[in-house]
Design a protein that fits this description.
Elements: H1 5-19, E1 32-37, H2 50-67, E2 71-73, E3 77-78, H3 83-92, H4 96-113, E4 124-125, H5 129-144, E5 148-158, E6 163-165, E7 170-171, E8 174-175, E9 183-192, H6 198-203, E10 209-210, H7 212-222, E11 225-234, E12 240-245, E13 256-259, H8 266-269, H9 275-285, H10 290-293, E14 303-310, E15 317-322, E16 334-337, H11 343-351, H12 364-371, E17 374-378, E18 384-385, E19 398-401, E20 405-408, H13 438-441, E21 442-444, E22 451-454, H14 468-471, H15 484-490, E23 495-499, H16 505-519, E24 531-535, E25 538-539, H17 556-563, H18 565-574, E26 582-583, H19 586-601, H20 612-630, H21 634-651, H22 656-666, H23 671-680, H24 697-700, E27 704-711, E28 714-722, H25 727-736, H26 738-741, E29 750-754, E30 758-762
Parallel strand pairs: 1-2, 1-23, 3-4, 10-24, 13-15, 23-24, 25-26, 27-30
Antiparallel strand pairs: 5-6, 5-9, 7-8, 9-18, 11-12, 11-14, 11-17, 13-16, 14-15, 19-20, 19-22, 21-22, 27-28, 29-30
Helix pairs in contact: 1-23, 2-18, 3-4, 17-18, 18-19, 20-21, 20-22, 22-23
The structure holds ligand ANZ and zinc ion.
Length: 763
Amino acid sequence: MSYNHGSIDAKWQAAWAKAQIFRAQDDSPKEKYYVLVEFPYPSGAGLHVGHPRSYTALDIVARQQRMLGKNVLFPMGWDAFGLPAENYAIKTGIHPSVITKENIDNFRRQLKAIGFSFDWSREVNTTDPAYYKWTQWMFLRFFKAGLAYKSTMAINWCPKDKIGLANEEVVGGKCERCGTAVEKRDKEQWMIAITKYADRLIDDLDTVDYLPKIKKQQVDWIGRSEGAEIDFAVVDSQEKITVFTTRPDTIFGVTYLVIAPEHPLVESLTTSEQRDTVHSYIASVATKTDMERGDDTKAKTGAFTGSYVINPANHERVPVWIADYVLGHYGTGAVMAVPQHDERDLAFAQTFNLPIVDRPLISFADALAKTGGKKTVQYKLRDWVFSRQRYWGEPIPLIHCDHCGWVPVPDDQLPVLLPDVANYQPTDNGESPLASIDSFVNTKCPTCGGDAKRETDTMPNWAGSSWYFLRYIDPNNNNEFASAEKLKHWLPIDLYNGGMEHTTLHLLYSRFWNKFLFDQGLVPTSEPYARRHSHGLIMSEDGTKMSKSVGNVINPDDIVNEFGADTLRVYEVFMGPFEEPVPWSTNGVVGVRRFLDRVTKLPDFIAPAESPDVTKALHKTIKKVSEDITNFRFNTAVAAMMTFVNTVFEQGSITKPSLLTFLAILTPFAPHVGNEVNEALGGTSLMEAGNWPTFDPALIVDSEVTIAIQVNGKLRSSLTVALDLPESSLVTQAQSDPNVAKFLISPIKKTIVVPNKIVNFVI
Ligand code: ANZ
Ligand code: ZN
């Protein structure tokens, strides 16, 4: 049989499409299994080799689960709102929906060419009005529950282009387009109160199976600290400074207080002698980012205010300083400094010659009692800024009426469609381009019928991806985002995989969104994902990041064209441990192709009988591959299959049933080759319709075992002997082992034998 990958790939892809074999059934009596990969942003560059790493791995899982008899939902869709399409529209004037459609068509073609077993009948697209109608509807549930509110927030502002910039458009403090230094500008924004869910987003991690490092990222991002707020009275003043501390037990070691440069008491605490010093200090740190301020490798800076406070625990007088290592919007923006116990305080005290004292700790409660402090909890997590002054996003479905305030667009008028604009550039006062379309802005108040204006901000890119996994369950439903019955059938998602770059924000936002819907009685589970995994990045051959500008990006199309879809698939999961970053290797690709070539030669070895070594190797391989898929060790699963094929080549024969069994475990990895070889052997049905093989435990037991030999419970030697060697000959061999004999200095009182494991002589 010759392996002409071009025609073979196309042939089996057409066969799968015709048989509709990957469709999930909503009413199947089989056990359900919902396996999800993060849907891509359909960029103009097309698929890159990072995408198929995740998709192949979960495709293998999905295909195996189907063969295990499960009703599998493995969907795909497009996270298609976002800046690149909008910036392209600004440049070319082509509507973002046009370019998005082209990109999606290209992505779909690429994915189909790799043979993924997605249920294409459930494709979703976040920019489709039939989809974003429900994103808007859900936003209104947040609004009606009091969780969406307006607040003044600083946005990034380019004074030259006169536009608001997204964080990712600010590079090193400068506008990505023109290089002008970016300013902060206050703007009213819609916010969503995710902080109300902070505790549950941490505590409920106990109920899910995520990689430990992913749980840690969630916990760290939320940043819950339990501590206390303690008041320090200002000397010769009515004022007090409240500090937040996680270590009230260290209060006897306080030698100074520090407030943030933006603390509201800065002016009233600064004495006239210190005014100039303090003002020039504040000016010198005004443009630093929180990251720079928190960088502990940099020298500490600060200024003395001239004021003092009284330590409530021991009534000592301590000076008040201003320093940028204290952040204005965390805790109370004021810190009690304990150089004895805190590294940053120590560095600061050393820089400014402040006292460092050695004082005993007190208990947490004792602290609090001595100081009148109160227990509090602080979070690093902030509420979610939900407004963008952009075109290519979901319009926020609210109307402002002078009489009635903010009024939701009635549900039966959703979706609020994105209107056509002539110019995709935000307006020069920082409003979204929608603000310049009078016919969009001017409307009637749904409550009182008076003149009113629509909100012109759009939603962030994170909105549509916060609930897409729900829409796959019932993608064509026009009355609900998904039927309650179907949601109950499919949720929670059994397995979810995506990049580590999404295990903070996207994971947090979507868990939060789902919890809110759960509280509203709209979804059946509080957590959306039962299990979450992540894959490592694919680097270029020299270990650097693949990037378009360096020109070292590998296009999956090229690999598929030159080596075939199965080579790409197998290589993607064989290249290294799934969670680790790994460099691309062209040699590795060639090696995988050689393995698949050998697989297509296996029919030449068919014989009426095979050597017991082949049978044993087959059963070991079934066991190994089954376990490795469960544990996300796809690379060692591939290695085991390679070893098996080598064994067949060495032994020179394999029976037809054994080869068919091997093809069954190979097919989830290399489905085109699996089906093609099966057909060459006379098979008439698709491999996907078959069952996942089981192994015979009796056939994989090794014929030799290693026995530990002990004297009085201490390990003295070990022996490799035949399995189930009779006890008497085992004991004789053990006794005569020179490393054992020299310890048998007195008569043996007792001999304890644990079959196939241990011989212990008691003397
Ligand atoms: C005294 C102390 C002694 C502290 C000690 C720590 C160790 P996390 O865990 O991150 O919440 N802190 C409080 N507010 C701050 C702010 N706005 N900017 C910078 N640092 C701030 O850290 C809480 C600790 O960080 C607090 O406890 C406070 O220092 C400092 F041996 O108080 B601690
Ligand atoms: Zn009104």
